[in-house]
Design a protein that fits this description.
18 helices, two-stranded antiparallel sheet, about 35% helix, about 475 residues, alpha/beta, 9-stranded mixed β-sheet, Rossmann fold
Length: about 475
Amino acid sequence: MRFVFVLIALVLSVACQGAGKGAIDRLHPCQIAEGPPDAYCGTYRVFEQRSAASGRTIELKIVVAPALRRDPKPDPLFVFEGGPGGGAATLASERIPMFRHFQTDRDIVLIDQRGTGESNPLDCESAPEDEDDLSTADTVPVERFRRCLAQLKADVSLYTTSIAMDDIDEVRRHLGYDQINLWGGSYGTRAALVYLKQHEASVRSVVLDGVAPTDMRIPLYMARDGQRALDLLLADCETDTTGCAKTYPALRATVQALWTQLQARPQVQFTHPRTGKPASLTVTQRLIGSIVFQALYSPEITALLPQLLTDAAAGNYQGMFALAFSADLPKGAMSEGLFLSVVCSEDMPHISPDDVARETAGRFVGGAMFETRMVLCDFWPRGQVDDSYYAPVTSSKPVLLLSGQDDPVTPPSWGEHVASSLPNSRHVVVPGAGHITLMRGCVRDLVGHFLDSASVAALDAACVNALKRPPFFTSYTGPEQRP
């Protein structure tokens, strides 16, 4: 037992030497309920209404994974979580392993954006009994969100991205960091771009993974971009003549037949994947479309789709329903109220009914998001967003943009769009990758080289050309074994 305590003390001692003294002086070793045991935790209070600098305050959660070297680089990597609604610090146990590759040289800093995680979260969680109910994909939970809004101890109009990024810079100063590197994934790329615009002098370099700029108008193009990803899957299956095309020779027609069948809203019997009990459900295209859309985020899960879609077209939805429950986040990891505060303020005011009709027509996802979740914007309070917020971000800072070739929500066109106004940038499209590319093949090494040099000039990205989509499953046991 004494050895264990000595070992823990040694680890914390090395960590203290590796981290910036300013940060560690203001934090403490994380307790079990706070974060990873080899990281440092703490909080910092900001005014909810920053412009007034008075009134209610918000306690922001901070987790720092200290650099492992005795002489770390002074510029940490700040991680901006996706969503909107994800709490970076609250997800630290899941996120820090993703960035361990860079922790040798520099601190990894995760801060809950106001309204997320454990930082005055705008949580509007569903009842436990509703979490097992697949039919909720077709419902509009207006009353639940009205009750939630009335109970929140927050002015939800003050939880926009611009205000939150001023919070982050205040925490940076509190921790004693000068210039910092930014990594943003998905909505986190929007947050990073806004931080770059508002606090450029504090930025050394930026990595944007799955680019979602301020003028994206979430979720207007989700149906279009999701359809593109599904079409790429079908095309890749057709060219895989010894595997996918051999097993599913008419997959494109099968998928179209499935969408046609779902218009009749069939009633199906199945075994509930969580409870193991017999269940029945009226199945709609909105439900199956949402499951397929989420599956397209991950290349590994996408590899299962030909089998699942074929089974569903034959009336067997068991695998599809199992997939619907396969990606649960830790409790409190995603704030639905924060999602609404951001999207209802920043995006929905710039989306017209004609826009929705044009972008959703003929796409398998259709207008599902607008018919359910976005209806809540009718009463959710909106924050003030200046017109300049939507202007392209321009900066001479080095920016590496990463896009998954098969991404259903932030495809390469968005990376190209943002890169066009960043003269010191490089856009790398990763073959075979879906949403978020960091863990694909050599991408972490590529990001590491970029962070070391803070330059795109000599960045060699040729290694990504060897990457490709994982092989399609030809049965539930896996891909066809080839000699």
